[in-house]
Structures are given as structure tokens and as C-alpha cells.
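Board notes (copied after class):
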Amino acid sequence: GLGDVYKRQVWHLAGVVDDGAAPALTWDRFAAVLGPKVDGSLHLHAASLKTPVDTFVLFSSIYGLLGSRELTHYGAANAFQDGLAAARARAGLPALAVSWGTWADAGMAHRFGSGFEAHVKSTGMRFVPLDGGFRALGALARVADRRRCHAAVLPADWAQYAKRRGAAGPHPLAGGLVPQRAAPAAAAAAAPAPPLLRELAAAGDRPGLLRSRLVAFVAELTGGSAGDVDPDAPVTALGLSSMQTVEMINFLNDALDADFSPTLVFEHVSVRGICCLLYTSPSPRDATLSRMP
């Protein structure tokens, strides 16, 4: 009967999301996010070995497929599910991991607030519309028992995604989707410098100008005023979430045409410290400011 059909299907949709770059994570936070994905999937896998099933579907995420600086532990949890689906497929067992993009107007990630949508768009990723997502789900349900072990539903602006990746280049799994770029020298000659970089080149107090712009951006992120942001306070004390901290680094990367790592915040602590560092000891890879006339 129909009840027997559903008994032969396993769908794992559980998950917990928490924003956090690796340097800011504790094991307790890591374990809280790993549990529903890793333990839950393993329990269902073990049960399916005792009671064979026709369909075994794991709802994974693009953050497991492409990685994420600001959702490190969530990415790891989803990557485990992708690996489990591949292992089951190699063993001849039904398995399908679906790497979902972020759903529009729904889903766990939207609890991060209004800044989350801007952050996702800044990476080149786009939201899965509800109607399109359910159509994709219906199509995937029809092939879930045909030994396809991985699928992805992730609308994206791949050219913007490649630009955000900067010197690292496209993720290997997305390389074939990214438009071919001009040779580095030709691209550098053709692309105008960002507006702030041009302003800094003409400024007398370059660290001061950069500091004021960075303070204003932090105030925008936190919903306060520039006067409320202490440039000498640790960035971690300014009320920014881990994801907003990454947004701050992305702001610097876009404004200065650079490729700074989020660890900059932890290594140089304050807004003033970050701005001074960029003028006193830029690394060979990020020596954007030292090249200005």
C-alpha cells in the first residue's frame, strides 16, 4: 500500500545554523551545528542498513559544496552529508545529497537579520525562489532512487562570484561555470581603480580617511552612528556578528581592490590598527596601498 512506499523513503532535513569564522569558534559551537547533520545522518544510515530503503535523501547546502569563511562549522556539517551520500552510492545504496542555495524569504539563515541578504548577494550567490525551489524538489524526488548521489540548486552570478574569490580564483567545483577572465595584466590595465582607492591616492591623511570610511561602514552594519564606534576598541567588541565582520573585510576588499583575509580582524584588533597596518606593512599579496603615488 501507499504506507509501505513511504516507509521505504528516508529524507533528512534537520539542521542548525550559526554564523562563525573559524578563529571565533569554540568546540561547543562546532558540536551544536555538527550534531543534527552528522549524528542525524549517521543514525538514519545505520537504520537503513537494517531496514533497506528505496530512497535516501539528505538536504545539504552550498556551504558544504563551495565552502564558507563565515559559516565554517555549518559548511563542514553539510560537507559530511555530501560525503556520506557518495559513500552510500559507492556501496550500491540509494543516496542523494541536495546542496541547496539559500531560500528566499524562508529557511534558517534568515534569522541573521536584514544584513544577511546583502551579504549573500555580495558573494555572487542568489536566493532560491520558493516556487522554483519546490519545482526543483519535485524533479529531484523523481530521480532520488536512480543512483544520483549529488545535486545542487544554487542560482548565482558566477562572474561576481569569481570576482569575490579574488586571487584565489574560482572554487574548483565551480570553475566550469565561471566566465573566462582576461589575463591578469590586461584585466588590471582595463579596470579602473575603485573610487575610494582614487580618493586615498589624492588624500593627505590616507589612514585617517580610510578610518573614517571604515567607521561609517561599521556604524551602518550595527545600525548606530559613526560617533558610537570607537576606532580603538577591539572589532569584536563593536557589536558585529561573525558574518558582519566578514562583510567589513569584504568592504575593504571592494574599496581597495584587495584580497584581505577575515583573520585581519583578529590579528590587528581595532579599526585604527587595521587602517594603520595597511599603510605600514602591507603583505606582498595585498600591497595595494603601498603602490599608490
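Comment from the instructor: Strands lie at 9-12, 55-61, 96-100, 150-153. The longest strand covers residues 55-61.
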